[in-house]
Specification:
Strand content: under 5%
Largest sheet: none
Distance between the termini: 15 Å
Helix content: over 70%
Shape: rod-shaped
Radius of gyration: 52 Å
Number of strands: 0
Number of helices: 14
Structural class: mainly alpha
Length: about 450
Amino acid sequence: MANHTTARNIRNHVASLQTMTRFVLATLALASGVYTYLGVRNLLDGDATLVFFAAIIYSVAVSVGIYGFWTYLARILPEMRDAGSRLALFGVMAAGSLMIIAMSSWLNAAALAGSAAVEQHLAVTQEGYTADLDQANSNAIAALSLLPDIQRAGERFARLADDERQSGALTGTSGSGTVVQLLTQMSAQMRELEATITASRGTVQQLFEEGQQHLATMRGLVSGAGPIQPRSDSFAEESVALAGVIAALQQTSIAPSVARAAQDLSAGFIAPVAAGGTADLAGRQNEVMGTIRASVDAQSQALSNAAAEIMAQPRVEERRFVPLSSAEAVILYASSFLPSWAGAISIDLLPGVLVAMLAVAHAAVRRDEENIGDADRVTAADMMRAIELQDALVKARAQRLREAEPAAPEEPAPAQDAPETSPPPAHQPAAENVTPLSVNERKRFEP
């Protein structure tokens, strides 16, 4: 009897929830249609009126399709009794869910998090441009690290020239001779190279500050308020200008010029003819000039190696900003917007939970009814209808019997003093084949 009560209660609950089920399905389908409209509107281009009607038609089609799909499953799947049919319909539900995600859920996610996804795309691109600007600036000013070595070499040549002029520290004979001229020439070349590097510092600093201004504008566009599309367009303009600054910084690097100048120190070394008044002085001058040449070769090799290391640093690859729509951005950065994706998919697939609940409820009802006896399946209303049907059958059988009996001859009227006897009931012959219910049995089946 408990199984019978449980099954009956479940059936009553399912029946009472039919209206609520339809309301839930309609509400979820409508919500999905609204967000689908918002998502698809950003994907269409052209006349505003055409875009509006196209988005409306698509969203209505999605809403109707979702509502019809889940309504069919809610009605049919719970009624399936064999495992094969249930598995087949569950497979259909899985395939339909994938189709719903493909035609609606990603647009819902675009409507929920599309602007935030585009902003993240702008932020990621801006970070990339920041790294490119820093690397280009580092490559450009790397040659400035050679400036102390060049200054020391130039000062050393100038100091040796003064010492030779004043005291003859190199040749033993003071005065402005050949050695002094050669040392002065080397010192002048070093100062020219130093001036070139120093002049490039101002250009690099100016370009870097210009790039910083573009980056500041881009950061403001990323975190600014208002529609995302105009900000994305302005961001694209700033990115083009910044790319030009980065390219200019790479071309401003003085390292190649330093490498060529270092090679010229050695390859273009021109030693003057010894101009000593005596052979001994001329010999000392030639010996000192050989020493100076060896020093110049060593200095040239050191500068060439340092410049080569600077030029070996990786160049900044050209970066191009690719604008993305909200739908494309929310797919590209889906891992950053999992809550939005979960909400968008849940709106479309939540009816599947209702279908599964109905399937479980109907399965429980069938399982409980299998353990119920035939007598327990009959309700009081069924019993009352059975009694009424029995009375109708009895009356119908009695009527047929009366019609089938031949007419009896007329009898004389009884004497006045004869006792009155009541005729037998008309339906009495029919009672021979019908067993009426006893009073106790009737009370048993009364509600």
